[in-house]
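Subject: Protein entry, chain in single-letter code together with its fold tokens

Area: Proteins and the way their chains fold up in space.

Attached in line: The record itself begins immediately under this heading.
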Amino acid sequence: NSEQTLCSHCKGREAELYCKTIANVADLEILFGRLWTQCQECQGSLHQDVLCTSRDCPIFYRRKKAQKDMAEAKEDELIPVLKAPAMDSKLRQANEFLLRMPRRMSRYQS
């Protein structure tokens, strides 16, 4: 229930918070995908899992951090709470918000 999860200040912003949370997950998925592809290219195959465990490679650590951050973002307790049926009308409002919000991934780009 969002009443238990959100403070009184954030209560009226459920849709905005939901969309920001989902956008953050999407950004982290993109970052992880790019790093994964770099590792696949380095090992010489885009069709196999990455087996690299090179502790000397900065991409290895960035990929592992992105994987951890992505998993944590997907476990965010706001996602199921804010996905409640009562959110339908608020999601339309959030769509409008997202259209006005510039997409910035600078903190995730290399």
